Amino acid sequence: MKIHRFPVILCAVFAVLVLAVGPAIAQSVGSGSFKKDKDIEISFGVPVDEAWAKDTANYSVYEKPDPDIKVPVESVTLDSRRVNATLKFKESLNTAGEYIVEAKNVTSEGKVIGSREFVVKKSEVQLLFAIFLGAMIINNFVFTKYLGLCIFFGVSQKKETAIGMGITFTVVMVLSAVMCWALYTFVLQALHLGFLKIIVFIGTVAIFVQAVDTILRKINPYLFKKLGVYLVLIVTNCIILAVPLINADSGYGPFSSLTMALGAGLGFALALFLMSCVREKLEVCRVPPVFQGLPIAFIVTGLFALAFLGFSGLAIF
Amino acid sequence: MNRNVTLLWNGLIPENPIFRLALSLCPAVAVTTSVKNGLMLGLAVVFVQVFSSCTVAIFKNFIHPRIRIPAYVIIIALWVTVIDMILPVYAPDVYKQVALFVKLIVVFAIIISRLELFASKEPLLPSFFDGLGMGVGFMFGLCLIGAIREFFGAGQLFGYDVLGFKPLLVMILPAGGFFVIGFIMATFNWVEYKITGKIPKAGGAH
């Protein structure tokens, strides 16, 4: 039996990312870190007095850009060595932002040893990895955001076409998302024409796909013969427009946009490949006549969506 | 029967965009966790479909056939931008939930396929009724799925508590939308099988 190279490559990319990013995350914990979206953990370095540490009035917490808006601390817990404290908050924190925690009159064994300041933020790599995982698996565009279904049902009948479409789509997605980001930041925002983004983005994608089609036809006819048919279909895929719009609305920078697009593309490829495997098997199954074709495909997708729901608890960071 | 009425009826049941033509399925699953959301997006689609059909019907003699697709896309994008600015003013709460999909109406296959197949060949009035029929058919589909999912998933209809309990929570989860559409499509097939005696071929899935 022929082993498909595609899933192996996908796994390899994933493994490399985990290996590369893992150590970076371990080091990036500065003087404080987010535990959950309502908790911050800080480390004093020396054992502190429990009575002092439990008093929430000793802490003042604010988000970096506006020091006047204090975030109220609900409760504080110390670990058994009395070195690390966990601050609990009523409201969810913006874990993509940067917080400053000021501890007044830190008391250690009865003596006041001065005030301390802690900077709490996620590192850039951590954020990028969270965006990537989010776009690819946790909020998979097909199974949990229901985008790109038209293409998804159209080309997932054979593994061969699914792989071709997956690769072409990922490449076009990444390049066009970066182009849309550049246009949005340097042209539309600079001229205060943000409301034109729908027209500009769809135009950019259409022109870009047409350009790739023309260039590929001249430069590499073999590759064009393999992937050319998918190029035209890509323009009708909602994901290709949704990703630049999401990037623009959440104010992502160039690297975040690129990561988001890469995650979305690979996630779509993954969904296509999984679905094509099942549909090849479905061909030889006895499906009730009224369910043949699209209805059964929908129900299979529903089952996949249920399975992907399991990833929603995957909040590593 | 009057041709315009036939066109309207066509879009509603015999050529229903979601269940029969299997076009523009993404929003059909995504926003239909409640009737209200379905109605909202449906209205936006009716607006865009009717206005872009009329625009194309009026200007079809000025659009060169070789650049017709980009021209249609720009016309649709224009009307989508208009509705995208109107909706948040009048219904800010519901708009928040369907915002991304209102923008994505640009790439809904149903709209461009009606422009290409109908409005580019016919005069203004039939184009208007064709657009209206397709739009309302789409809205009908969204509301039907929304009603089923809201009723079984949350025990509510239009936000009002009907049952008092939640029989099948899975219905408002992502997976529920896929199941409901699958079963409705099968039901449509079954009804047609009972009436005509043969299984209809599945739609184009675009």
How do the helices and strands line up, and which of them pair or pack?
The complex is a heterodimer of chains A (317) and B (206).
Chain A: H1 5-28, E1 32-34, E2 39-43, H2 50-54, E3 59-63, E4 70-71, E5 73-78, E6 84-89, E7 98-103, E8 107-108, E9 111-112, E10 116-121, H3 124-138, H4 149-155, H5 159-188, H6 197-219, H7 221-234, H8 238-249, H9 254-282, H10 294-309
Antiparallel strand pairs in A: 1-2, 2-6, 3-4, 3-7, 5-6, 7-10, 8-9
Chain B: H1 3-12, H2 25-30, H3 35-59, H4 68-90, H5 92-103, H6 109-119, H7 124-154, E1 156-157, E2 160-161, H8 174-196
Antiparallel strand pairs in B: 1-2
Helix pairs in contact in B: 1-7, 3-4, 3-5, 3-6, 3-7, 4-5, 4-6, 6-7, 7-8
Your description of this structure?
The complex is a heterodimer of chains A (317) and B (206). Chain A has helices at 5-28, 50-54, 124-138, 149-155, 159-188, 197-219, 221-234, 238-249, 254-282, 294-309, and strands at 32-34, 39-43, 59-63, 70-71, 73-78, 84-89, 98-103, 107-108, 111-112, 116-121. Chain A is α+β, with helices and mostly antiparallel strands and 317 residues long. Chain A is elongated. Chain B has one domain. Helix content of chain B is 68%, strand content 2%. Chain B has helices spanning 3-12, 25-30, 35-59, 68-90, 92-103, 109-119, 124-154, 174-196, and strands at 156-157, 160-161. In chain B, a hairpin with a 2-residue loop joins β1 (156-157) and β2 (160-161). Chain B is globular, with a radius of gyration of 18 Å. Chain B starts with a helix and ends in a 10-residue tail after the last helix. The mean pLDDT of chain B is 79. The chains are: A alpha+beta (317), B mainly alpha (206). The interface between A and B is large, with 45 and 45 residues.
